[in-house]
Amino acid sequence: MYIILVLFWILLNGRFTIEILIFGLIIAAAVFWFTCRFLDYSVRKDLLLIRSLGMLLMYVVILLKEIFLANCQVLRFVYSPKYVSEPVIYYFKTDLKSGFARMLLANAITLTPGTITVYVHGEEFCIHALDKTLAEGIEEGGFNEILKKMEAGW
């Protein structure tokens, strides 16, 4: 993070001189110290993030795939004259341990068309789905599995 802060400082200045570099090193050190001291940041967290970067990219790929598939399904619901939706409130429990992983799961569900996370209380999720077919398999889906793998690496 320190190196990124220095590079950001140089980028914002628009030119590179030795004075700008020295001043950037000092400013970046102060910001880095502040984040470590008061914002519960550490170099260890940077290393964990770098280690789990592959899993995070896989999460984004799964999220984009699910968004596309749900968009197709919702379009089919909207444009089908014979279709009558059956909205459902769906409850399930997850075995994700960290609040961050549960937040990622809740956001993924909400970002997927046709579903929205109503509330999360501990391990219990409450989901509203436009149709019961959209709620099927949420707890066994790809989101939950990739988040479990990401948690194992944290």
Write a structural description.
64% of the residues lie in helices and 12% in strands. By secondary structure, it is an alpha+beta fold. The chain folds into 2 domains: 2-41, no CATH class; 53-153, no CATH class. Strands 1-3-2 form a 3-stranded antiparallel beta sheet. A hairpin with a 2-residue loop joins strand 2 (115-121) and strand 3 (124-129). Helix 1 (2-13) packs across helix 2 (18-38), helix 4 packs antiparallel against helix 7 and helix 5 runs antiparallel to helix 7. The chain is elongated. It starts with a helix and ends with a helix.
Which features characterize this protein?
elongated, 154 residues, alpha+beta, three-stranded antiparallel beta sheet
